[in-house]
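Renewal narrative, Specific Aim 1. Our central claim is that a sequence can be written position by position from structural information alone. The example that follows is taken directly from our test logs and has not been curated for this report. It begins with the structure tokens describing the chain, in the order in which they were read.
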């Protein structure tokens, strides 16, 4: 049970009471209608939050990029978007209630005051990978698809995309075993049939090949399915992509999420949107080409997190990695003058160092 306390109209209430008790919901409703600003009491001065409504329920959320203002032991504390781009969205783009996320999805990315106003396919893929724990690497760990696909399926059960539960309309294939072709085909048949609710597919990328009118994408563990991308859709995705994407020279290993609709032929689909996130051979979203920093951190014999960028602004400073300790995460930066947001990332890194915070900094 949360011990977080909230100040509303000069009265202090337990957060769990406000969220779960009918009387607490009435208090939130009145404050919502009056425009009252709630304050988290984790610090003596209080930290501003806001009240939002979803259907007939009211809940509290921290202001974007304000997590660093909260006390370190407060449930609302965070690194201010330094360890996850999920914290950089504008109001309404991502709503989190308990373990469930409700996202507003659009094909294009718009910013308001430096914050994305909706979630694109790039952000949705990052959310799935982060919730499945794919961005955390433990020393000597080499996970395979056999275990990860189940975690992605579980993650999709906690994500609503424009009101639709993702697990009901997304295919995450199991490991393709040639000795079980008949069983796998029987499982896939109703999922890929015309008229099924299938509109999303998430799997490791196998290849991107040019075609007469655009591109063909094939995914691992789905050898019988073909996905077609028009040149127009490909151009839009390349311009929007959070990580550089060259359709003629795609990453050797990557995760792919696609929004699709059924094509003319059975097993053929038209791609309306997609995202590609480069990974290593074990589906970790970073290769150890960042100055050997990942190898160094893994050598500390602790888990290493790779911050997911989501739809954060290109200028938003993020750490390259984080070393997970017992009760904290130590950010790690590899700073290069050639990177676009070098100045802001360097400022953030050395601000932490001047304030005696744990941080790894590598200048190149």
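The sequence written for that structure reads:
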């Amino acid at each position: 049970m949360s011990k977080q306390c909230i100040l509303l109209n000069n009265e202090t209430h337990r957060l769990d009471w406000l969220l779960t008790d009918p009387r607490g919901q009435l208090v939130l409703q009145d404050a919502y209608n009056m425009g009252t600003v709630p304050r988290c009491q984790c610090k003596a001065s209080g930290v501003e939050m806001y009240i939002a409504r979803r259907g007939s329920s009211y809940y509290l959320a921290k202001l974007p990029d304000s997590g660093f203002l909260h006390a370190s032991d407060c449930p609302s504390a965070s690194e201010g978007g330094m360890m996850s781009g999920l914290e950089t969205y504008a109001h309404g783009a991502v709503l989190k209630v308990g373990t469930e996320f409700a996202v507003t999805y659009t094909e294009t990315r718009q910013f308001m005051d430096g914050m994305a106003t909706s979630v694109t396919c790039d952000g949705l893929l990052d959310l799935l990978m982060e919730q499945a724990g794919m961005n955390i690497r433990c020393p000597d760990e080499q996970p395979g698809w056999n275990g990860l696909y189940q975690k992605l399926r579980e993650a999709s059960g906690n994500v609503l995309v424009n009101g639709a539960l993702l697990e009901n309309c997304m295919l995450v294939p199991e490991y393709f075993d040639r000795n079980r072709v008949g069983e796998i085909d029987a499982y896939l048949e109703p999922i890929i049939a015309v008229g099924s609710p299938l509109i999303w597919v998430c799997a490791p990328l196998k290849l991107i090949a040019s075609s007469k009118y655009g591109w063909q994408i094939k995914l691992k563990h789905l050898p019988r399915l073909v996905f077609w991308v028009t040149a127009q859709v490909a151009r839009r995705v390349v311009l929007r992509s959070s990580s550089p994407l060259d359709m003629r020279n795609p990453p050797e290993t990557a995760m792919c999420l696609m929004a699709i609709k059924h094509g003319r032929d059975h097993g053929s689909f038209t791609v309306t949107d997609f995202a590609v996130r480069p990974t290593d051979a074990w589906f970790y979203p970073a290769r150890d080409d960042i100055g050997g920093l990942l190898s160094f951190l893994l050598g500390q014999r602790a888990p290493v997190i790779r911050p997911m960028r989501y739809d954060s602004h290109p200028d938003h400073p993020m750490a390259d990695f984080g070393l997970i300790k017992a009760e904290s995460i130590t950010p790690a930066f590899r700073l290069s003058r050639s990177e676009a947001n070098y100045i802001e990332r360097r400022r953030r890194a050395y601000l932490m160092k001047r304030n005696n915070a744990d941080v790894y900094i590598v200048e190149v």
